[in-house]
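Session log. Operator J.P. requested a structure for one protein chain; no other inputs attached. Running the standard single-chain path with token output.
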Amino acid sequence: MEAKEVLKQHIAKIASLTDDELSYVFSHFKPLSFKKGQSIITAGDMVDCEYFVLSGCLKSFFINDDLKMFILQFAMPTWWTSDFNALYNHTKATINVDCITDAEVLCISNSDREKLCNELHNVEHFFRWRTNKGYVAAQKRLLSFMNNNVKYRYEELLKLYPELYNIVPKNLIAAYLGVSRETLSRLYHA
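Structure written below.
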């Protein structure tokens, strides 16, 4: 499916845009292609864009002082990713974003998103809804970490996103769940 059509269908779930408005909105996005393993954002970078995934799978992650990786998000088609703290606060990135698979994305700059939101109420509504949805998802994940054991979190992830298990290496799923690869292996074979 053409990139413009994917974005149109994604926005149309929340907000109505005329064909002219959609063309105008789409003109502010830049299509980019990345290869498996390629970095999009590296900790320390200045961040001016967010990315809408058309195809492939990305991961956003943090590496602590002990060099342990923590996966914050897997971004699959129609998901958005960036270092939002760096993007919105104009600070250096503290997280990394890279490609688990080859990926096609649409990139929009912070200034272009703000411009579109100021010019078109329905675009502002869409981005506000999307931000709220992301906040709710992050809150649910944090509460699950605080309240549920790893077996429950593993089963919940498998139920919500079964396709991840065909795309994402098990060591990355373990990093997302906050466990070792060995612990995940025991759950996977249980």
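Operator note: The longest strand covers residues 49-55.
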